[in-house]
Write a structure and sequence with these properties.
single chain; alpha+beta; BirA Bifunctional Protein, domain 2; 5-stranded mixed sheet; 16 strands; binds adenosine-5'-triphosphate; binds magnesium ion
């Protein structure tokens, strides 16, 4: 039996890095006032079709949708913003002036699997609900860049754009439609079909023809209405003051229809075509469209697989993230009780301990310790028992020390600090 195509296991060799990525995210985000929300993996299909948009790739062809036993249409979430907004409205979190949420977990999209693109993938997402101020956009992006720097991604590139609002976007859409109308033959079939309904999709399309045809397409930023223009200026102004470099990318429209005003993407190194490690933007109308009060919002999601690929390729992680293994050998029945007490003490002290309770020669146990990659083997034989010590052997050097029971934890902590 094999896992489903596009689904994969995160094995222990990788999961230490994943946990590190997650816990650092939560630590950094909480210093900006974010708290965790845990969301269901299944939602009503309607939640996604209404928010992400009927004419998007996700809703048209990528959702895992099915009917449950009662016949209700359900979907494995393809993203976390719509569920977060649903929860925000349902639980009346809007009584607070501003709500900052983060979440993590698997998302599902029926895409063509390749490096950095899977059918089940993990995101770390964050949403600021209830604040229209451009400082929110800038500060949240700055938080993300800082987080990337902390975990070791230094050459991330920020692309930003503004998609305007329901006031200025229709005019832009018309102009774009006129532009695309003259280049219909170059567009891919999919974009030809949906160009009338949603011409912006052609700017997001990855097919060669569409990329070329839209190269000199009119730019949304040139068509922003006064309030949207000022908002965008506010965002870029704050970014500069926060020392965050950005590239203005007028083609960047994102694959979800709910975005208004600011959108952004952050790309990372060593990823090939799938090089976006985080993306997001403003969605000022989504809460009201889903039945809540008028609530301007800003959010983003990070792709964990891509982050993990970047970090593994730049190195420096792995072994150092999982704690060293100590192998405790109890030799002979009389030593067992004391051995068990010492092992319990070590584990209570946070050490990672494997054990062997043996009779006779320690040869096999030592081999096993070696195979497990233990850094120290601790032996309690009858000799040691009578003296009230254990023998601690450093596997790499075969150096041996005798340590009294009562000093073991102190001794281990001191050598571990030395190992740094
Ligand atoms: P892309 O353009 O790469 O398809 P997207 O615009 O569909 O990305 P979002 O929906 O904004 O992406 O999701 C945010 C992030 O989640 C992406 O930047 C990426 O890092 C990650 N992501 C999206 N889809 C996948 C996938 N199928 N497999 C792995 N990671 C993904
Ligand atoms: Mg996509």
């Amino acid at each position: 039996m094999k896992a489903i195509r596009g689904f994969k296991d995160i094995l222990p060799a990788e999961s230490a890095l994943w946990r590190h990525i997650e816990s650092e995210a939560f630590r950094v985000f909480s210093t900006y006032g974010f708290s965790e929300i845990r969301l269901p993996i299944l939602e009503k299909t309607e939640l996604f079709s209404r928010s992400i948009g009927e004419g998007t790739d996700i809703v048209e062809k990528e959702m895992y949708s099915f009917k449950d036993r009662r016949g209700d249409g359900l979907t494995l979430r393809p993203e976390g913003t719509a569920p977060a907004v649903r929860a925000y409205i349902e639980n009346k979190l809007h009584v607070k002036p501003v709500t900052k949420l983060y979440y993590t977990g698997p998302m599902f999209r029926y895409e063509r699997p390749q490096k950095g693109r899977y059918r089940q993938f993990y995101q770390i997402g964050a949403e600021v609900l209830g604040d229209a101020d451009p400082k929110v956009d800038a500060e949240t992006i700055e938080m993300l860049i800082k987080y990337f720097r902390i975990i070791g991604i230094k050459d991330a590139v920020l692309n930003i754009n503004s998609l305007g609002c329901s006031g200025c976007r229709p005019g832009y859409k018309l102009e774009l439609l006129r532009f695309l109308g003259a280049r219909m033959d170059s567009l891919c079939e999919n974009c030809q079909r949906r160009v009338e309904e949603n011409p912006l999709r052609a700017l997001d399309c990855k097919s060669q023809g569409c990329v070329e045809a839209t190269e000199d397409a009119p730019s949304m930023v040139d068509q922003l209405c006064r309030p949207c223009f000022e908002h965008f200026e506010g965002v870029t102004g704050f970014l500069m003051q926060l020392d965050v470099n950005y590239v203005l990318n007028s083609r960047m429209v994102r694959g979800l229809d709910y975005y208004t005003r600011t959108t952004f993407e952050i790309t990372g190194p060593n990823l090939g075509a799938q090089n976006t490690i985080a993306a997001g933007g403003r969605y000022d109308k989504l809460v009201s469209e889903l039945g809540g009060p008028d609530t301007p919002c800003f959010g983003f999601a990070i792709g964990m697989e891509r982050l993990s690929i970047v970090l593994s390729s730049t190195g420096g992680f792995g072994a150092s993230l999982s704690s060293p293994i100590f192998f405790f050998v109890s030799m002979g029945k009389p030593t067992r009780k004391k051995a068990m007490a010492l092992v319990a003490e070590m584990r209570d002290g946070g050490f990672r301990v494997e054990t062997a309770y043996i009779e006779g020669s320690p040869k096999k146990a030592m081999k096993r310790a070696d195979k497990l990659g233990a850094v120290y083997t601790i032996i309690l034989g009858e000799d040691e028992l009578s003296k009230g010590v254990v023998s601690v052997k450093e596997m790499a050097t075969a150096d041996q020390s005798f340590v009294p029971y009562g000093e073991l934890i102190l001794w281990l902590n001191a050598t571990l600090t030395g190992m740094g």
